[in-house]
Amino acid sequence: MQSTEAAAITSPAEPVGRYRWRICALLLAATTINYIDRQVLGVLAPELQKIFEWSEVQYGYIITCFQAAYAIGLVTAGAVIDRLGTRLGYALAIAVWSLAAMSHALVGSVAGFALARFALGLGEAGNFPAAIKTVAEWFPRRERAFATGIFNSGSNIGAIVAPLTVPIIAVTFGWQAAFLFTGVLSAAWLTTWLISYRPPEQHPKLKASELALIRSDPPEATERVPWARLLKYRQTWAFVIGKFMTDPIWWFFLFWLPKYLHSEYGLTLLGLGAPLVAIYVLADVGSIAGGWVAGRFIKMGWSVNRARKTAMLICGLCVVPVVFVSQVQNVWAAVALIGLATAGHQGWSANIFTLPSDMFPRRTVASVVGIGGFGGAVGGMMIATFTGFLLEATGSYVPVFMMAATAYLLALGVIHFLVPKLEPAQL
């Protein structure tokens, strides 16, 4: 059987197809839409706060509802997708978040927006578990990291597209249209997915040679390791605490930056586009550079432990200057400081996401990532509520930027304390 598969892969008579990359393109589109949908509220927040007269605390509660649902979804989505299968599981997730996104246009109260955000968080939590499972089904092991990197870039693309398109739609057609438009994008993707997606063995457009390539890896161990067992290891807690301390900073940037730029520099809805795009382009650069730096150190002969932590240190230091952002008067100086911080975060994220694969066997990596994602979402809930109360009481963002400046170095200290050599967990 193996010799037959090898012949199918290398046979000049039947070159290996590339249909699997069409599936990857669908995952990229879904992740982009995912981030556009979650960004709409943040981009429109200054205008919606005027229309509905939300207090800062109320806005914080609305964001907290999304984070709470996202945390719950990260715990449950994997099991649901495993039970239903990738095709139906992914369809269910995007159907829920599509309807939730559009439902924002129908509400007008704090409770209504909170409920819509909760539903959006539940649905959106299914995106990454479903996409990662799809990659595992459609790609051989040697191509999975590249395929994952491609679809994951949709997070930064979505963060760039939202401030470019949402203000124009809102100004031209009303704020409700912005939520309806992104929901329609999700619905269009869902239709395409249901029509075109089948498991590789059942797909009529997949060549036998490409299927042989996809299934060319040795069988992987599938024994499930319960969460309760993983929580006994300090390697798990190093990842969870690192995510808990640093993910909230990214959530703050996503949901509060438009409000900050509006309140501090008087930017209008249309004026937010260029600064936000610049910030998230820098974040994209940081994501690529952070992973490249660690890989470069390893190629130089450094140990994985030294290379990974040095790269994380560099990324953490890039966030430190954000503490001075409240002291600058020019909006583009502020954009430069915040952009450097978001670049640092994304570089940090590229490295911290590799820690589970550095320390755990492959069959447990997804579970450890899920636990860490839950920890990060809980941290996001806390910073959303804290920021709301802080702004209501003081009107100052300074304490939050101080937290951002110190969070990464403190998190790296905790990680190094718990896993000084990134030694593998002995399951």
UniProtKB/TrEMBL annotation:
Domain Major facilitator superfamily (MFS) profile: 23-423
Protein's name in the database: MFS transporter
Pfam families on file: MFS_1
Spans through the membrane: 59-81, 88-116, 173-195, 237-257, 277-298, 310-326, 332-353, 365-391, 397-419
PANTHER family in the cross-refs: HEXURONATE TRANSPORTER (PTHR11662:SF285), SOLUTE CARRIER FAMILY 17 (PTHR11662)
Topology in the lipid bilayer: Multi-pass membrane protein
Principal subcellular localisation of the protein: membrane
Database matches in InterPro entries: MFS (IPR011701), MFS_dom (IPR020846), MFS_Na/Anion_cotransporter (IPR050382), MFS_trans_sf (IPR036259)
Family per similarity comment: Belongs to the major facilitator superfamily. Phthalate permease family.
Location relative to the cell: Membrane
Keywords noted in UniProt: Membrane, Transmembrane, Transmembrane helix
Organism: Steroidobacter gossypii
